[in-house]
Amino acid sequence: MFYTRGVRRPSWGHTMMGVYNAALAPLRLAAAAWAFRHSRGPRAEEWRERLARRLPDMRRHGGIWVHGASVGEARIVSAIARGLRALREDLPIAVSAVSPTGRAQLPAAPAVDAAFFLPLDFAGLPTRVLGAVAPRVLTLVETELWPNLLREANRSAVSVLLVNARLSPGRMRWYRRLSRLYAPLLEGVAGVGARSEADAARFCELGVPPTSIRVTGNVKYDLPVPATDRSAARHELGIPADRPVLVAGSTRAGEETILLGGWRRARPIVPDLLLVLAPRHPERFGDVERMLGASGVRAKRWSARDASPGPRTEVLLLDTLGMLGTAYVAGDVAFVGGTLVPIGGHNLLEPAAAGLPVLFGPHTENVDDSAAELLGARGAVRVLGAEDLAATVVRLVTDSSVAREMGRAAQRVVETNRGALGRTIDLVLATLDARTTRAAASVP
Question: Which of 45, 49, 73, 289 is labelled catalytic?
Fold first, then answer.
């Protein structure tokens, strides 16, 4: 059964799960072969976890499992886990991620009891991990709607909660096509903490009962800025105090070439402009380095540790996880990637929280709410390509008063929207307490 605005309709959920798992059968064989190939390599433990052959070592049960996909979601997972631990010191907490970069961002003991890779969504694997963790509540961050995970959590009597939940219009079209698969799974969730009213309406349309949905806001407004100031951040990165810096964070394939073109156009007016490039995925560091070498620019990789960008360095390749926030604090202007190519955008709020003017391209479907807020407050500028980027960077670097005012406006957007983290933690604990009460009542 599923709900469209609360109206109950028939579905073929059981049949669709069979179709879904049949479609995954070749991938399951491929994953087993891949894991065997890497069984003695550096990723061996990762693949044992992904195939549920190595299970989390939870010494305590009956708590909360919080899951997010990649870096941005993992930062939210960490914030929620630390907030829960601060309020309930004895609460068992497990955390997981999908990507290696997200896994690297997860907290470790004593902040949590276990951290691990989410198992692949093959029938039976989620049940094995659910049995090892034995949570009362499974908390999924943003749009981690894995069918077998949802179904097997429900069968294991685990309450499923979606937090910081979002559905972009583009992704919504995909879920509408698969509504017969997802609607029966979503109507059984314990609750949804949606980022916005629009997201809440989309979850309702997909099948979540309206009474289970609350608008809690975007937790990314509450994520902490690195505990450093501009001077210390520049010292850490080896950047002179007076050098103008454009930080391009979370860039995707195809964007670095455009950014380099914009940087070249700006250089005749701002000859000392340093471009700090931080690709989104570590596996692309080598490709970006080769592209920079082929373009003839003087580039250095941060991981070399002797790569302090002296006066001859033109591009600093930030190839160490966890340094982007520090780079934003050290910068003068920020560009956020995934927006010049049709990805949908990454976290616009991190540079805004650091007080920088924020630039991004036309593709912001995944971050449309924060993009609209920043544009409306005049804390951001949308750029359409290299020429537009160059003109905007030159204006901001050569007129520090305009840059400062934009940075303050961006920072105010973040400050005035804080509070979602607290509301989200309250929702998680309320779901846990309700689940615990029901469990106690069922005991004869």
Answer: 73
